[in-house]
Design a protein that fits this description.
49% helix; Methane Monooxygenase Hydroxylase, Chain G, domain 1; eight-stranded mixed β-sheet; 350 residues; 11 strands; Alpha-Beta Plaits; alpha+beta
């Protein structure tokens, strides 16, 4: 079975390599981008397939020499090592070829809001916003601020594979630390909720203008004072679903309206996904919950400089680096866990 899979990987990869240098494909920008994406996605599996071929050659060579010359401890060790490597590579190849989440290549819209903990929760939401925008930049993705008001932050992240990276940040993030306003030095526990929505394209979600109620009003700053002299803030209510999106960050009503529509489309798309594929836990409510302290995906403990991801029971002691946007180790572990679960589900289904 694995031999057949390796052959399929090699054949498809050669085909993509040929297309990447085909003048006709190069001339078609959209087609070239599509082929390039497919090539990059298959490249890790193709490298593993090549290593598997080498390990099989090593196994065959050791077996041949043992058959010719009788017992040899060194050759026996080489054979055992090659077989162990083959087994390991076969598992890695299967994981690499697990069917991807169809939304993985999409841009994302991220909403962060303070949960339990009052003012400290709002401050923590701001810290998470900085952490995630820095992470986007580190990954070569492009963060785009959309709205920030009353301890809630909305921003987009654009670039290939944005959702595949950020989908693991959806949920309740808990912090344990001494707030700056705490005079007694007591540790407080606060939370902020993060919703990660794959950004919907027009073909994904059709929004009828007749279903929308659009209200405009003046932007307000801290304490409720008006920060704009024109009615530039926009509130859009989608009547059939009851979803309400407000935007007031831009001075232009048109820009705020466009951004609010993008967020609305993403929320509607995510809701449709949740209804169709409940097993993928795409439901925004499952990510956000109520913001209660008990519903947590990750805890950040300042006293111990510790970060614990409760979904995969992974603990690291590099809090400072994580807050600076160094989340690669956590993302890699979560991606591997997702692939294993998908592989198990595919096996159970088959």
């Amino acid at each position: 079975m694995i031999e057949e899979l390796v052959k399929q990987i090699e054949s498809r990869f050669q085909e993509l390599e040929a297309q990447m240098s085909d003048a006709e494909v190069i001339a078609d920008r959209e087609r070239y981008a599509e082929v390039g994406r497919a090539y990059r996605q298959l490249e890790p599996a193709a490298k593993l397939a090549e290593q598997w071929r080498h390990a099989r050659d090593d196994e065959g060579g050791a077996e041949e020499l043992l058959a010719e010359g009788g017992e040899d401890a060194e050759l026996r060790e080489e054979l055992a090592s090659a077989r162990e490597r083959i087994e390991q590579l076969e598992e890695e190849i299967r994981l690499a070829m697990v069917e991807r989440d169809p939304n993985d290549d999409k841009n994302v819209i991220i909403e962060i809001q303070g949960g339990a903990g009052g003012e400290e929760a709002s401050l923590w939401a701001g810290d998470l916003y900085r952490m995630l925008t820095r992470y986007a930049e580190r990954r070569g993705l492009q963060p785009e601020p959309m709205d920030a008001a009353d301890g809630k932050y909305t921003f987009a992240v654009k670039g290939d594979g944005a959702y595949s990276v950020f989908k693991f940040e959806g949920g309740t993030h808990r912090v344990q630390r001494v707030p700056q306003t705490e005079s007694q030095g007591r540790i407080h526990t606060s939370t902020a909720t993060v919703a990660v929505l794959p950004e919907a394209e027009d073909v994904d979600v059709q929004v009828s203008p007749g279903d929308l109620q659009i209200d405009v009003y003046r932007s307000s700053g801290p304490g409720g004072q008006s920060v704009n002299t024109t009615d530039s803030a926009v509130r859009i209510t989608h009547r059939p679903s009851g979803i309400v999106v407000s935007m007031q960050d831009e001075k232009s009503q048109l820009q705020n309206r466009e951004r609010a529509l993008r967020v609305l489309r993403a929320r509607l798309y995510e809701r449709a996904l949740a209804e169709q594929q409940a097993e993928l836990a795409a439901d925004r409510r499952s990510q956000v919950g109520t913001g209660d302290r008990a519903e947590k995906i990750r805890t950040y403990n300042y006293g111990e400089r510790r970060v614990t991801d409760h979904r995969i029971k992974l603990t690291t002691h590099n809090l400072d680096q994580v807050l600076e946007g160094d989340l690669d180790d956590l993302t890699d572990a979560l991606q591997s866990d997702e692939k294993r679960r998908r592989l198990e589900a595919a096996g159970a289904g088959g």
